[in-house]
Amino acid sequence: MTTPIKAGVSIIGNLRELGRALRPANLLPSLTVALVTGAYNVFIDIAQAALIFSGVLSPYLPAGIGLMLFSGIVYFLLISIATSAPGVIAAAQDGVLFAVLAAAITTRLQSTASPETIFYTVVAAIIATTLLEGVVYILLGRFGLGKLARYVPYSVIGGFLAGIGWVLVSGSVSVMVGSELTLETLIGLFNMPTLLRWLPAVIFAVVMLMITRRFKHHLIFPAMLATGIALFYAALAASGTSYALAQADGWLLGPFPGGALWQPLIVPSFQNADWMAIIQEAGIIASILFVGIVAMLLNVSAIELATRRDLDLNHEMQSVGVANIFSALAGGLTGYHDLQTTAMAYQLRANTRLTGIMLAATYLILLIFGPSLLSFVPKLLIGALLCFLGLQLLVEWVYDGYRKLSRSDFITITLILVTVAAFGFLQGFAVGVVAAVVLFAVNYSRINIVKHALTAASRRSNTDRSPSQQSILRRNGDSVSILELHGFLFFGTADNLLDQVRQHALSDGLTQLKTAILDFRLVTGVDSSAVAIFTKMQQLAERQKFTLILTSLSDSIQRKLTRHGLNLAETPYFKLFPDLDRGLEWGENRIIQDAQLTITTTREPLERLLRASFPKHIDVTRLMKYLTEQPLAAGETLFKQGESADALYFVEKGALTALLDLGEGKLLRLRTVSGGATIGEMALYSGGGKRAATVVAEQESVIYCLRFDDLAKMEKEEPEVASAFHQYIAKLLAVRLADNNNLIEALTR
User: So what CATH class is 606-706?
Assistant: First the structure.
């Protein structure tokens, strides 16, 4: 859990920063951004209000505009003061989703309730959703969980946004013609009187889209708004239509009642709302919460890139949560960071907290004195804005997405879009969730669960073998397959694993498989479907006569396999080892046993073992007189980590293991040596020093000690024997180096 930011200290510091921003050099840039983006945002907010309060709710549009403007004031003020970076601006958002919610409530109640009841129910649903969104933001920020939403697949987010684009385009036509767009009303749209009410706006929206895609400047959009208003009134003048007639015929917003637009609606809404209708739309409310959280995180990430500043995500979420609660108490909509306004503030060097304050002031003036001004706004322009915003999303995610995204991502986006258009946003939300799961399963199945595929010919255990045994392992090492697994094992990846084991078991080009080792050290978990795969592996092992070895199997995974009926301890074709090294040692022993060589558990004279590795003209007995025989009992320590090194040792019988002390009682096996091998030789060529590991006899053993003083004596008395000895040790080290090089080459293929 992350430590929450102390909001009181932060707010005090931000207010002091705001005071320093009240300088003449900051006033003009902040005022410019407030006027330019304010005009843009006002028209967008009016368009969203018209989308929400349409149809039977159209008489309540003035109140809806008031709610939108008041929400903007709340977010401009609070986030400008509370944000972790000056110049970051938030605004009311997701009006199109609230339009979906309002349409669903209207459809549910219009046959049984009055328009006033429907209005209060819609407002109550908006308030409840915004309040809930605020609480969710605060909890996510408080517990540092905001980043979880970043795991939503990119294509699913794109599908949601494309669906929103469709809702905006279809909703823009509904706003302009005054009726919901359905299959029944679609034909009527092309009658000449109706055609004039929406086609010019769609054409204007397409022109706006083409211009904004080609040219990037902060004054383009205000200029297009002014052009749209001028063209509308020029058309009125050319047709001889008066302002009063245009308003009476529904071409303009309004008429608006006198006084301020905003009124406190929380009490009457909660008293008069049909709460059962709101509860029945819980699915749409959940989708609004989900989209809001994801969009907020995407906007914050984009703002960080655009402004080249890091934002404290948890603090931002808590700040936005508080702002949503204040907006809800005033009857307003949800809101979060506004990318376009923030980017413009930074481009014009108005990145101070003063910019948001001035934006709030412009909204407040319009909220108090604006009804008469808003009466001159053409509905065609509002429809064009909604259509423009929708086309932007559709072009970005469908047209551009076809060229930029992978085929699977584009199909997912199209599927969600078609579902939203045909059945509704809630169904599109459900399809998006299913698509996310399927997309994850398909993509993850493509990941090879096998991190490294090796054999005992290229990878050896930490057990030193005699030269003859090493030769057997090099010739027959391909009979031991080593598969180091990683990630999560489920039906998709497990089936690929079974295919790899089957290919080796049935292949004619490799040595017959005798042991298949599956290392689970990097496996994070398995699902129930993996049990069936292991059952099939067991059946394959029975037919092909090989043994399956599972290493580094966690207790939780083993319990899950046992719970589903696969008891590995009682299955003859399965063996369990604590780590890959021990499992590989067992596989090597089987190769040596099958080659009818005896693993050194009975005594074979060291002189005979060394004679096979020394030049024939060297009498090994001349070396033996410098060695001292030393018996070791099982479990006895030869030397300890950190002791001074003064000798090396030849193993005649038994086995010795070198252990590295990792602290806290943890020991790591470095090597196990048996008859004919040496141990401690590195200290000879590194000039003595401290022992790097502890060596313990695993069983009753017999060793021969060559002290460094005796080696120096041999170099003086028997220089020929000493030279052969050094060549012998050099060959041992060269073999180990070659084995390591082979392993590195195999791991990097």
Answer: mainly beta
